[in-house]
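We were asked to recover a plausible sequence for a given structure. The inputs and outputs are reproduced exactly as logged, with field labels preserved.

PROBLEM: sequence recovery
POSITIONS: 249
GIVEN STRUCTURE:
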């Protein structure tokens, strides 16, 4: 599946959360795709819907609403505030401020039983928030590699109702596809059937510490079911044939 196809699949899924959830729509958009974990923060986010100063560098875990997975936030600054303001077409998102290069959101999502992994999420920064990020991954739960870097830019067409562009106020009950990032990690075979898979959205903005906020929403990790080995299929067929012969006898 190429990047454009994965963007279509996840775009359809994210737009349809209110119409039966991601798994059903994803299934219709791509029959072989299975959701490993989905984070909408609409349930988990209510636990920190009022801003909470941690007094520490990390926040979490936040449990996935669908599937199996946990989300975390990590900042170098001890005065970072984690909160769950409005999402992109939903009531809550995962937000934090006081960003410095190396700070990140992390998603621990086992891909057991899946291959051809895809990752998708919505992301936006305030006018004083970080603007350059990289998606990192780990196959062993310890060592990370960068998969893709990108800059958060919002087109004039996405101007919100109050006249702002590229600010968090653009997120509301109406989902906007311009804020979605989708990545096809199917070429990374180490992520296939991986109980230790981790994904991080890392601040790589070289301008340094920013006082503003960045938030993520509608995080989805998905893949195709790992097919049965051919040898197992043959053994199963042979066993079935033997059982039929015994019944006939």
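RECOVERED SEQUENCE:
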């Amino acid at each position: 599946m190429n990047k454009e196809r994965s963007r279509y699949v996840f775009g359809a899924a994210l737009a349809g959360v209110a119409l039966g959830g991601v798994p059903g729509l994803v299934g219709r958009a791509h029959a072989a795709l299975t959701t490993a974990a989905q984070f909408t923060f609409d349930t988990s986010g209510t636990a920190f819907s009022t801003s909470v100063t941690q007094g520490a560098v990390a926040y979490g875990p936040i449990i996935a609403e669908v599937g199996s997975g946990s989300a975390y936030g990590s900042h170098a600054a001890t005065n970072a505030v984690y909160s769950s303001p409005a999402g992109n077409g939903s009531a809550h998102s995962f937000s934090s401020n006081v960003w410095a290069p190396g700070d990140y959101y992390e998603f621990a999502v086992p891909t057991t039983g899946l291959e051809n992994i895809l990752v998708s999420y919505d992301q936006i920064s305030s006018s004083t928030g970080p603007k350059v990020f990289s998606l990192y991954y780990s196959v062993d739960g310890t060592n990370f590699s960068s998969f893709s870097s990108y800059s958060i830019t919002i087109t004039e067409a996405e101007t919100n109702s109050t006249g702002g562009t590229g600010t968090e106020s653009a997120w509301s009950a109406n989902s906007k596809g311009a804020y979605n990032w989708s990545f096809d990690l199917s070429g990374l075979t180490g992520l296939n059937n991986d109980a230790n898979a981790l994904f991080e959205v890392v601040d790589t903005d070289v301008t340094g510490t920013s006082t503003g906020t960045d938030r993520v929403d509608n995080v989805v990790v998905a893949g195709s079911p790992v097919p049965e080995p051919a040898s197992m299929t043959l053994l199963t067929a042979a066993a079935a044939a033997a059982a039929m012969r015994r019944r006939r006898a």
